[in-house]
Amino acid sequence: MALTDLSGALAGRADARLSEIVDSLEGRLAADPDLSFQIAAYVGGDLVLDAWGGPHLGAESLIVPYSVSKNTIGFSVALLVQQGRLDLDAPVADYWPEFGGQGKAGVTVRQLLSHQAGLPEATPKLTWAELLDHHAGAARLAASWPLWRPGSGFGYHAITIGNLADELVFRVTGSTLHDWYEAELRAPNELEFYLGLPEGLETRRVDVLPIVPPPGVERPEPQPMLGYVMGPRPGPEVDLANGEESWRYGHPAGSATASARGIAGLFAAAVTGRDGAPPLLTADTVFAVGQQQVRGTDEVLGLPDRAHGVVFQKASQALAWGGPRSFGHDGAAGAVGCVDPDTGVAFGYTIARGPWPGGADPAALAVARALGRL
């Protein structure tokens, strides 16, 4: 079905069946002059929505979507699982021998990539220079004792999962995760979802704007573990989203640079196929990485009803983006990317200034759910 050009505050194109969704997005833009977002979706591999609105983001804007970046890790790992080069139930030390010390000999790939390994931070804490490096941060994590016995619980490895996965991919392929993702996923599918913003695209990059709490609302004190993991680091500080050293490197856990169409395009290309092409992943691989591995209270965030597949987040009360087989990842400032294999919806959303208190914009999740009812 041909898409209709949009002529209101919401610009872009949409399937005619999405008139109610378009009206709701128009209403949001009218109600908040500062609101700026991009939104894109495929259903069954066909583009049904590619739109944007607001003063800060345009058709060609690129922005750091924080942890939506982790979807690049998930699909990079999924390809290696599908190729038989990575066994989710093998010890990490089979591929990366140095990892096996300090009580980690039995940690499996599955545990490492579902936030169960107890390594949301190294001891002593990692510097930004070590985190924004393909090997230095990983080496220090391998030399650290876990913060909990692996497998006894799970806690969000907000940044370190990128360093751990990068080293694991390197040990399996001889390529960094960045190079593997670029060669196998991004470039062949012409996706606007970069690990490291290429030279020449800087003029398209837009800063992430700070989330503003409602009047009279103060930011809560973080849980002790979260304060330790996300608190100040030794050495010079780096702005994960807006610092050039960060987005130029493109940390796979938090500082990729993308558009909404790039995020939705990655999910569609991998899971449903896109524009008539077959999907990159088989149904068995999608099930293997999208299957829930853990659910409960997160040791780092201190929040209940958190759930993960292999790298990806699973649907929950806070991430109500689809059915029980849906998966994806949100970002701290409101962005989200997800897919539901049962409905064929592949969805991407970026936002310049997310709503309080952070995490996936609930309005975007509502659109993802509505698309599943088409």
Q: For the largest sheet, list the strands in their spatial order.
A: 1-2-4-3-12-11-10-9
Shape: globular
| Uncertain spans | none
Radius of gyration: 19 Å
Q: Output the structural class.
A: alpha+beta
Notable traits:
globular; 8-stranded antiparallel beta sheet; 14% strand; Beta-lactamase; 30% helix; two-stranded antiparallel ribbon; 374 residues; alpha+beta; 12 strands
Short description:
The chain is α+β, with helices and mostly antiparallel strands and 374 residues long.
What does it look like?
The chain is α+β, with helices and mostly antiparallel strands. The protein is built from twelve helices and twelve strands. The strands form three sheets. An eight-stranded antiparallel beta sheet has the order 1-2-4-3-12-11-10-9, sandwiched between helices. The protein has a two-stranded antiparallel ribbon with strand order 5-6. Strands 7-8 form a two-stranded antiparallel ribbon. The longest helix has 14 residues, at 160-173. The radius of gyration is 19 Å and the shape is globular.
Which SSEs are present, and which pair or pack?
Layout: E1 4-7, E2 11-14, H1 19-31, E3 37-43, E4 46-53, H2 70-82, H3 109-112, H4 128-131, H5 136-142, H6 160-173, H7 177-189, E5 193-194, H8 224-230, H9 244-249, E6 257-258, H10 260-272, H11 283-290, E7 294-296, E8 306-308, E9 313-314, E10 327-330, E11 336-340, E12 345-351, H12 362-371
Antiparallel strand pairs: 1-2, 2-4, 3-4, 3-12, 5-6, 7-8, 9-10, 10-11, 11-12
Helix pairs in contact: 2-6, 2-7, 2-11
